[in-house]
C-alpha cells in the first residue's frame, strides 16, 4: 500500500481528490490536511510515501512548505493547482508531477500509475524551488503563529515536548514548532552549537570558553546556551 496524504485548503477539492484516489486499492489515504500547519505536523508523525500538495494555500503556500520538510525523509510530492502558471513551466522542465484543478480522473490515473511504478522521493523537487526558511509555523497552546526566522534567538529540542523557539528583544517569548532541528540546519541561518541547541549568530553577545573544553554562549536576551565539543568548529573564535 502507498501511504498517501492530501493537503488542500478547499474542503470540496480535498474530498473529491480523496474519493478518486481511494478508488485505487493500492493507495491508502492516511490523512487530509487543510493547511501547512496541519500538514507539517502530520507528515512528520505519519511519514506518508506520497503527498498531494496544493500550491495556492493561505499563509504558507505549497512551495513555501517544502522548506519546512526534512529533505532526508521527504515524501514524493505531487503538486495540485488551479493557477500557478509561474510554476507549471518549472514542473514540466524538471519532470515534477502536477495536477490541474479541477482534477480529471484520466489525468489522475496517469499520476497514480507513475507513483505505483516509483514512489521514492524526488530530490529535484527541493532543487527546483528555493528552500530557505522565511517564516516558521509555531504554536502556543491552541494558538498558531508564523514567526519570522530573523526573530528567532535560540532553538532547542526537548525529548518530551519537542522543538522550542525563543524570540523577543529580551528573549522572553517561547513557542513550539513541529519542525525538527534538522530543517533549521538545512534551511536557516541558525547555527548548531549542541546536539539539542541552535543559535542565531546575530544575537550572540559573547562566547566564553570553559575549562572542560566546552563553551558557553551569552545572548543579548541574557540567555546562556551550551556549546559542545562536536560543534566548536561552528564558532572559530573559541575552537
Task: Lay out the secondary structure.
Layout: E1 2-7, H1 11-22, E2 27-33, H2 36-46, E3 50-54, H3 62-65, E4 76-81, H4 85-93, E5 98-100, H5 105-117, H6 123-128, E6 135-140, E7 143-148, E8 152-158, E9 162-167, E10 173-177, H7 181-187, E11 191-194, E12 197-199, E13 204-209, E14 215-219, E15 224-227
Parallel strand pairs: 1-2, 1-3, 3-4, 4-5
Antiparallel strand pairs: 6-7, 8-9, 8-12, 9-10, 11-12, 13-14, 14-15
Write up what this structure looks like.
The protein is built from seven helices and 15 strands. The chain is elongated. The protein has a five-stranded parallel β-sheet, sandwiched between helices. Strands 10-9-8-12-11 form a five-stranded antiparallel β-sheet, with helices on one face. It has a three-stranded antiparallel β-sheet with strand order 13-14-15, with no helix packed on it. It has 239 residues and is an alpha/beta fold. It has helices at residues 11-22, 36-46, 62-65, 85-93, 105-117, 123-128, 181-187; strands at residues 2-7, 27-33, 50-54, 76-81, 98-100, 135-140, 143-148, 152-158, 162-167, 173-177, 191-194, 197-199, 204-209, 215-219, 224-227. The model has no long low-confidence stretch (mean pLDDT 90). Helix content is 26%, strand content 33%. It has two domains: 2-128, Rossmann fold (3-Layer(aba) Sandwich); 135-234, OB fold (Dihydrolipoamide Acetyltransferase, E2P) (Beta Barrel).
Amino acid at each position: 500500500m502507498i501511504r498517501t496524504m492530501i493537503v488542500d485548503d478547499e474542503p470540496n477539492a480535498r474530498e473529491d481528490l480523496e474519493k478518486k484516489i481511494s478508488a485505487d486499492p493500492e493507495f491508502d489515504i492516511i490523512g487530509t490536511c487543510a493547511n501547512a500547519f496541519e500538514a507539517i505536523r502530520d507528515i512528520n508523525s505519519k511519514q506518508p510515501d506520497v503527498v498531494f500538495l496544493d500550491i495556492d494555500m493561505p499563509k504558507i503556500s505549497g512551495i513555501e512548505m517544502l522548506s519546512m520538510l526534512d529533505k532526508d525523509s521527504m515524501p514524493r510530492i505531487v503538486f495540485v493547482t488551479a493557477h500557478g502558471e509561474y510554476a507549471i513551466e518549472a514542473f514540466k522542465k524538471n519532470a515534477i508531477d502536477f495536477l490541474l484543478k479541477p482534477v480529471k480522473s484520466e489525468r489522475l490515473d496517469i499520476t497514480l500509475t507513475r507513483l505505483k511504478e516509483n514512489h521514492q522521493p524526488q530530490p529535484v523537487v527541493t532543487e527546483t524551488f528555493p528552500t530557505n526558511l522565511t517564516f516558521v509555523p509555531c504554536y502556543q497552546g491552541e494558538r498558531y503563529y508564523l514567526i519570522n526566522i530573523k526573530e528567532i534567538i535560540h532553538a532547542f529540542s526537548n525529548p518530551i515536548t519537542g522543538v522550542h523557539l525563543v524570540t523577543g528583544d529580551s528573549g522572553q517569548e517561547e513557542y513550539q514548532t513541529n519542525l525538527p532541528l534538522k530543517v533549521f540546519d538545512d534551511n536557516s541561518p541558525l547555527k548548531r552549537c549542541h546536539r539539542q541547541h541552535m543559535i542565531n549568530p546575530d544575537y550572540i553577545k559573547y562566547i566564553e570558553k570553559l575549562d572542560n573544553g566546552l563553551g558557553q554562549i551569552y545572548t543579548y536576551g541574557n540567555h546562556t546556551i551550551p556549546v559542545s565539543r562536536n560543534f566548536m568548529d561552528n564558532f572559530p573564535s573559541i575552537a
